[in-house]
Each structure stands twice: as C-alpha cells, then as structure tokens.
Design a protein that fits this description.
The protein has about 575 residues and is an alpha/beta fold. It has 17 helices and 22 strands. Helix 11 packs parallel to helix 15 and helix 12 packs antiparallel against helix 13. Bound molecules: 1-deoxynojirimycin.
C-alpha cells in the first residue's frame, strides 16, 4: 500500500439540503443560521465533510439548482456573512464545507441568459444553446423543436423564445437553460467563480450532472422513446467528446497548486465503471470520485416511474462490479440516499416493524464498502418515505410535471400517484426531525413542506438518548472508518453472489480481514456456503446491528444465523 493515501479514503460526507434541514427565523424554510445551530449534531455524528445543496441566489424553480447569481447567497438562506460564519464554525470542528456546483445550466433569470436571449447578435448569445425551428416547421408548431429530446422534467428539452423565434436547450426545466461549454468564455467565467469560492474558504465542490456539459455536435435526434413524440438524447450529452478535456482544464485552472485537502465529486448519471476509472484516476487530474446511478436504478423498470422490487443478487452484482472496477485505479463514492432519491429504509429495507434494524443494516453494508460514504440528512435517524395523500402533496418540479404529463396522456390518477409515492424526490425532502415538539423542532413557523407524521418517535433527540439507535450505529461506523485502515483501504471480495437474501463480503489489509454479513430479510436466516464458516463463527464481533444485550442464536454446527435484518462485522487477524 502506498504510504500516503488521500484523506478522503477515511472520510465520511454528510449532505445537507438546506431548505429542509433547520429553520432559524420562523419563515418555514431551512437556512444557514439553522445549519450553524446544528453543527454540534454533525460533530457528534463524527462526519468529516458537509456537502451543501445549492444556497446561491435562485428563483427556486428547482429548489436552488437554478442559479441566478453564483456569487451571492439566496436571501431565503441568509447572507454571505452567515456563510462565512458557517465555514469558520465548521472548520473549528474539523468539518470541511463542499459547495454544490451547478454549471451545466443556469437559471433563465441569470444575467448571462437575460443578455443571451435579448437578441441574436448579443455577445452572450453563444453562451447557451440556441437553434432555429426544425427545417420545414414553423416556430411553435408541434415537432418544430430542433431535436426530439425528452427533458428530465417531462416534455421537450427545447423552449421557444418568442423574441427571436429560436429555441433554447434545457435538459431540465425550462427555467434551467444549458450553458454552452464549447464557448471558452463560459468556461473561464465558471472557473473564475470557482476560484472565488475556494479563496473564500470552501473545501471543494460536488458537481451537478457534470458529465452532461460536453454535447456531441451536431445536436441530433435520439432513438424514439416508446410511441410518444420524444426521443432519448442522452447519447449526445452523456460523457460527450470533450468531457475529459473540460474536467482536466477545470482542474488546471481551478485546483492546481491548492494542495490535496480539497474534495471534488462529479455527479454523473449513466456513467459506466470504465468511464469512472478515467474520471477518477489521480494521474489524470479530473475529479476525486463520481456519483454513479446503477444501483439506484435497479428497482426501476422501463423508466424511473415504473418500479419493481430490488433483487439482492442484482444489487451485489452491480456494487461488486464497481468495487472491482475501481480497485486498482480511481475511487468509489458510496450512497443510498440523497435529495433526489426516495428514503433507502423504505425502498430497500423495511420501514415498518424493522425500521431500526434495516436502517442499521443498510448503513453497515454501505459503510464497509471501499469508497467514501455519503450520509444524507435524516438517514442517520432512519427517516422514512412520506405518506402522500393526493397530488397536491407533491411540490418537486419533476413530480409535478410528471403528474401533469402522465395524467394528460391518459394514465390513471391512482396509478400515477402510486408511482410518485414510491419514486418522488419529495420523499427525501420532508424536514429533518429534531425532536417531538411541534413541527419536529424544524421551524417555529409553518414548514414549507409538512413534517413526517412519525416525528414523535423518529427524531434526533430520542436517537441521541438511545445507545442502540440508528444514529449511534452510524456514529460507530464512522468511528470505525476513521480508526481502522482496513475499512478505508482494504481489498474488497464479494462472497455468496447468488444468495438472494445474504449480502456478504470481506475486506482485507495486511493480515487483518473483516467479514460483513447481512440478512436482507425479515426472518431468522442461516448463512449457507460461507467460505471458512467455522473460523468466522468464533471471530471477534467488531460491530453488530443488534443491541449487545440481545442474545444471538448460537447454532451448534458452527454456522452463522442472522436475525431479521441483522448485519454483523467480524474480524480475524492472521
Ligand atoms: C441533479 C440534482 O441532484 C437535481 O436535484 C437537479 O434537479 C438536477 N441535477 C438539475 O440540476
């Protein structure tokens, strides 16, 4: 093992979605002072880094992922002075602050776009993607869109701008026009802005859909999706021809010479393991790690609104392949949750009888993989999906647009609602549950999004007071990663790949081996076929997901029997 390993190998990142984290001024929306007031919660958990979802000035069409000023804080969240105080107070506790960098697109209210749309010969016209109607079509006519691409937020990716009669590209909402990275002035402006934040003291960036910034030219139609009017444009914008060049240029212009203490993570939908090796090879100077989406797509059918149950064998095949693919070169990020994903305990665990057990199991399995784990706010409390009553309960633009599009196409309202209940990003966005007081201690006002009704039992105050809580389990896992090099650096070997219920693997480093064994089911389960089973049966228990006082089944044949949703980490030393 090389002597110097990057610090982030033994680090854990905590994601804050500021809107839903903690309100400090009673307007019902979380803010930076709220984050400052809760820093001790993060310090108690032991995380090393906080990634803040966007707090820049924004019309909030996509809750801040539509930025109208990259160098100011949205008044909803506070001021630059609040931000500086947050950075200083986080640093005092040894916690780094990583910003969300949203530069595939801006808001349509960003001055760059306001200028760009003002006339065809404006100097900033070429900062965005503009195109005339399709040949043979009048502007505004159905089918006149320059390509047939389907937007992530439903409908076309093209919006007609009446003033000049041309369309602009927006892969996301029509209020999120895509920047044209072919234009060197765009890239220079982005790099200057990034340097400004680093000079201000931030410790890196999580880069929003960064593998979409290079588009393949000319832009052209994609394969039709079903029998609808839209096509799949992704081959033209996922990991486009100049993506590596752009990221290397960004590295040179922004990060070079600033030392090794910063963190860069690229959010990369549809990225493959082979691509990820290139993106994260330290010798190539692109990013430290990527967020990939394969494992969170395994419960999708044809598309994200068509859900099917997760098959454990497929999960192991996928995560195991990523572990193997990045074993020699590059690095993995590890996550179950973020602000775009339904709550993992509801999705992959059991949020009823075994909520606590399955939340701890999911944490154990994830945190013992090789890579940098990410904890999304509330995950450490075992927060669950939201019980949505009807269509009016959804606020996220993706969900709202999908509801309109799907019911407009004649899908049954109840079917669409069921899909949204399982898949909506709003599941992750209900306020963090701090205590059993009104609105879970999130706000003294009216919360922008209702607090989950289970807050009287699922909340941070209770969790901190209970040594067997999900919170304390996360704290122990984080401590283990900090303390034990085998967790950070050990080799990964998947075991029992075909077992439909047991997730088992080892991590090994210099004579120490950890075995992680987990029962993804609600009944006692004997682990069959484990290599060296007898030795492991007597091995030291490093960490278990059941309270120590709960007596484990002790079979006489040397096998391991796991209780419902139980996970164990065992250690042997040669
Ligand atoms: C990915 C972000 O995580 C998501 O929340 C956002 O809607 C899109 N990118 C567009 O910025």
């Amino acid at each position: 093992m090389p002597a110097e390993r990057p610090w982030f190998h033994s680090a854990v990142v905590y994601q804050i979605y500021p809107r839903s984290f903690q309100d400090s001024d009673g307007d019902g929306i979380g803010d930076l002072r709220g984050v400052i007031n809760r820093l001790d919660h993060l310090a108690a958990l032991g995380v090393d880094v906080v990634w803040l979802s966007p707090i820049y000035r924004s019309p909030q069409d996509d809750n801040g992922y539509d930025i109208s000023d990259y160098q100011d804080i949205d008044p909803t969240f506070g001021t630059l002075a609040d931000f500086d105080e947050l950075v200083a107070k986080a640093h005092e506790r040894g916690i780094r602050i990583v910003m969300d960098l949203v530069v595939n697109h801006t808001s349509d209210e960003h001055p760059w776009f306001v200028e760009s749309r003002s006339s065809k010969d404006n100097p900033k016209r070429d900062w965005y993607w503009w195109a005339p109607p399709r040949e043979g079509f009048e502007a505004g006519q159905p089918g006149a869109e320059p390509t047939n691409w389907h937007s992530f937020f439903s409908g076309s990716t093209w919006q007609l701008d009446e003033a000049t009669g041309e369309y602009y590209l927006h892969l996301f909402s029509r209020k999120q026009p895509d920047l044209n990275w072919e234009n060197p002035q765009v890239r220079e402006a982005v790099y200057a802005m990034m340097r400004w934040w680093l000079d201000r003291g931030v410790d890196g960036f999580r880069m929003d859909v960064i593998n979409m910034i290079s588009k393949e030219l000319p832009l052209r139609d994609g394969e039709p999706i079903g029998d609808g009017p839209w096509g799949d444009g992704s081959p033209s914008y996922i990991c486009g021809p100049r993506i590596h060049e752009f990221l290397q240029e960004m590295h040179r212009e922004v990060f070079k010479g600033r030392g090794d203490a910063l963190l860069t993570v690229g959010e990369m939908p549809a990225v493959t393991v082979e691509d990820a090796v290139l993106f994260t090879d330290p010798a190539r100077h692109e990013v430290d790690m990527v967020f990939q989406f394969e494992h969170v797509g395994l419960d999708h059918g044809e598309h994200k609104w068509d859900r099917r149950p997760l098959q454990l064998v497929e999960l192991k095949e996928s995560l195991g392949r990523w572990q193997e693919g990045l074993a020699e070169v590059g690095w993995n990020s590890l996550y179950w949750n973020n602000h775009d994903q339904p709550r993992a305990v509801s999705r992959f665990g059991d949020d009823g009888e075994f909520r606590v057990e399955s939340a701890k199991l999911l944490a154990t399995v994830l945190h013992l993989h090789r890579g940098t784990p990410y904890v999304y706010q509330g995950e450490e409390l075992g927060m669950t999906n939201v019980p949505f009553h009807d269509a009016t309960a959804f606020q996220d633009i993706e969900s709202v647009n999908y509801y309109k599009a799907a019911t407009g196409q004649g899908l049954l309202v109840e079917e669409v609602l069921d899909a949204l209940r399982l898949g909506s990003r709003d599941n992750a966005r209900s306020p963090v549950q701090w205590d059993a007081s009104p609105h879970a201690g999130f706000t003294t006002g009216v919360p922008w999004f209702p607090v989950h009704p289970n807050y009287p039992t699922v909340n941070a105050e209770r969790a901190l007071a209970d040594p067997d809580s999900v919170f304390h389990h996360y704290r122990r896992l984080i401590e283990l990663r900090h303390a034990d090099a085998v967790v950070a650096e050990g080799d990964f070997t998947m075991l029992l790949p075909d077992d439909p219920v047991v997730y088992a693997f080892t991590r090994s480093l210099e004579g120490t081996t950890l075995l992680v064994v987990a029962n993804f089911g609600g009944t006692d389960h004997k682990v069959d076929g484990l290599p060296d089973a007898e030795e492991w049966a007597g091995a030291e228990l490093v960490l278990g997901s059941y309270p120590e006082s709960a007596v484990a089944p002790t079979p006489t044949d040397g096998s391991i029997v796991l209780r419902p949703w139980e996970a164990r980490v065992l250690r042997r030393t040669a």
